[in-house]
Amino acid sequence: MLEDTISLTAHSGDESIGQETLRRLASVQRYNDWLYEEIRAYIGQHVLEVGCGIGNMTAYFVDRELCMALDLLPESLEQVASKFPDHPNLRLVHGDIADPALLLRLDGYTFDTVACLNVLEHVKADDRALRHMYRFLRPGGHLLLFVPAGQYLYGSLDEGLHHWRRYEREPLRTLVEAQGFEILRLAYMNLAGIPGWWLNSRVLKRRLLPRRMLRLFNTLAPLFIWTERSLQRLGPLPFGQSLLCIARKPTVSSQSSGLPESQ
Question: Among the four residues 79, 88, 251, 257, which has the most C-beta atoms within 10 Å?
Answer without folding.
Answer: 79
